[in-house]
Design a protein that fits this description.
This protein is mainly alpha-helical. The protein is 58% helix and 8% strand.
Length: 122
């Protein structure tokens, strides 16, 4: 039962994070400005729960940009460059360092944080 609850909260947090990334971008791709078939992409992956819900670790892209640029090793640098312009070099280094860090993540607190951030857009 406890595992199911955690899975449900994680799914809720994923949806909130994705929605926030799109709202922050004005519901358009941060690469092309297109507004259809939008995806929220994790710049540094989502395996690490601490990094997974960092808003600076997200970028809004179209489905095609997500598949053919963000997940293409030879073109991925475009996404990193765009995120660096938005976040700054120092913040990008912080995010990159968080990738290897291990920390306990309270998903209830993450959910509350994401809900508070969402209120800023409503």
């Amino acid at each position: 039962m406890k595992i199911q609850k955690r899975r449900n909260i994680k799914q809720e947090c994923d949806k909130l994070w994705s929605r926030l990334i799109k709202l922050r971008a004005g519901n358009k791709s941060e690469l092309s400005g297109k507004t259809e078939n939008l995806h929220s992409h994790h710049i540094f992956g989502k395996q690490n729960l601490r990094l997974r819900y960092e808003l600076d670790n997200g970028i809004c892209l179209t489905a095609g940009e997500h598949k053919f640029i963000a997940h293409h090793e030879g073109r991925r640098h475009k996404i990193i460059e765009l995120a660096t312009i938005r976040n700054g070099k120092k913040r990008m280094r912080e995010l990159e360092m968080m990738r290897s860090g291990v920390s306990k993540t309270n998903l209830y607190q993450v959910k509350l944080y994401l809900q508070q951030e969402l209120k800023k857009y409503e």
